[in-house]
């Protein structure tokens, strides 16, 4: 699932084939989609969307047989909060305008974690699917200080760790899942604007995209405990082709070029085998991962493994537009 400015692109992908096959796709349109940014599947046919200029909206997805080139959908529920600010609100951050509404969303069990730039918060909301609708509670704040421009969030599968991209400060902040206190921060001299985040299933590895550069960074914790700050990633590798990267860079005014060009959206498939990234001018890149619990040819998976020498991620498919 990809998010253009006023809609969504839904794709049918066969990850069992080699090479991976991308089949049908449809452009989803709805008046309730207003700068969609964060996307989360709650089930195979139930989707929630964090809209930068509006609210969190929920949709039932049509079956593949009903896909058209453009498929109209209607929200089955909408959720707003004072933490998101008024619809359409924006504010200044470092001299540029940013949209205040919900930007990133992740599910962990029966809660949704929602990031918003209104006052730089992460909130946690109970939800339930009942009949044909969604019930969502008012929730509580998980993070309310220390962040500026939150573009991504990931929760480890056991719920012990919450990773949040703190874009304006060039870092990823890790919070404890139980008391929501900050445990550590992750940085790298080549990581300028962290955006998309994703823990692997073992929560020993965290994938981080850089909105402004080609590199995809991977941070590692040998025991899955994120209590120690890091000043460099375990390794990094190019994640976007030159043509797409420079096309995006030169599509915006010069003062904004440091902020664009790289991968933004980032997620793993449920098996944890395939890492998927998307950005402007490169609709999708799919990488096959080597689990953090395995070794390659007797070598530990550490920083010395590069793209040219036993890469930890093998690009499986790239579709460019």
From TrEMBL:
* InterPro entries attached to this UniProt entry: WD40/YVTN_repeat-like_dom_sf
Q: List the protein's name.
A: NHL repeat-containing protein
């Amino acid at each position: 699932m990809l998010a253009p400015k006023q809609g969504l692109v839904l794709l049918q992908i066969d990850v069992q084939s080699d090479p991976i096959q991308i089949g049908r796709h449809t452009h989803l349109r709805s008046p309730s989609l207003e700068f969609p940014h964060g996307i989360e599947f709650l089930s195979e046919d139930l989707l929630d969307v964090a809209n930068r200029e509006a609210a969190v909206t929920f949709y039932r997805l049509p079956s593949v047989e009903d896909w058209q080139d453009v498929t109209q959908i209607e929200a089955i529920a909408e959720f707003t909060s004072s933490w998101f600010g008024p619809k359409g609100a924006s504010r200044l951050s470092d001299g540029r305008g940013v949209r205040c509404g919900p930007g990133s969303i992740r599910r962990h069990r029966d809660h949704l974690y929602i990031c918003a730039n209104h006052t730089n918060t992460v909130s946690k909301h109970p939800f339930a699917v009942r009949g044909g609708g969604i019930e969502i509670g008012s929730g509580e704040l998980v993070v309310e200080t220390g962040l500026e421009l939150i573009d991504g969030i990931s929760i480890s599968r056991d719920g012990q760790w919450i990773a949040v991209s703190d874009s304006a400060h060039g870092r990823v902040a890790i919070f404890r899942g139980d008391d929501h206190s900050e445990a550590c921060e992750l940085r790298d001299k080549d990581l300028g604007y962290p955006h998309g985040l994703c823990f692997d299933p073992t929560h020993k590895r965290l994938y981080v995209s850089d909105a402004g550069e080609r590199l995809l960074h991977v941070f590692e914790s040998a025991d899955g405990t994120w209590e120690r700050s890091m000043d460099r990633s375990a390794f990094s590798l190019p994640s976007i082709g030159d043509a797409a990267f420079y096309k995006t860079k030169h599509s915006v005014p010069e003062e904004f070029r440091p902020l664009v060009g790289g991968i933004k959206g980032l997620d793993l498939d449920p098996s944890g085998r395939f890492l998927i990234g998307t950005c402007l001018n490169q609709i999708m890149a799919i990488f096959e991962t080597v689990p953090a619990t395995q070794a390659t040819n007797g070598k530990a998976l550490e920083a010395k493994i590069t793209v040219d020498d036993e890469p930890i991620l093998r690009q499986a498919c790239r579709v460019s537009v």
